[in-house]
Amino acid sequence: MIDQPGTSVPYAPVPERIQVGGLDLHLDGYRVFASGESLVLSRKEFEILYSLARARGRVCSRKQLQAEVWGDGTHTGSRSLDFHIRSLRVKLGDPGAIVTVRSIGYKIGVAG
């Protein structure tokens, strides 16, 4: 398609962004900043953190997180989510940033 004089190009949508506590998550490019510093996360780690941040302190069940991150029909090992949560806690530098709610799931632990 050739641009004609006087025509406008539609604007790209504003990228979705969530801020909670000291975390700043940008859906475009899967970027995360903690207290202003860029973090390098895997795509799965980002998707887990994004789901928790969207819930803003409400508990996300393990089943819900697995469905959102891996898809409803995808079977993941029972420890896959635990592995990613553990890795996220290390990368965030705060073990309390993600809180385990025993027998239910997880929630974001930073004030926001």
From TrEMBL:
Family annotation (InterPro entries): OmpR/PhoB-type_DNA-bd (IPR001867), Sig_transdc_resp-reg_C-effctor (IPR016032), WH-like_DNA-bd_sf (IPR036388)
Residue ranges of domain OmpR/PhoB-type in the record: 15-110
CDD domains given in the database record: trans_reg_C
GO biological process: phosphorelay signal transduction system; regulation of DNA-templated transcription
Keywords tagged on the record: DNA-binding
GO terms assigned for molecular function: DNA binding
DNA-binding region per Swiss-Prot/TrEMBL record: 15-110
Name of the protein in its database record: Transcriptional regulatory protein, C terminal
Source organism per UniProt: Amycolatopsis pretoriensis
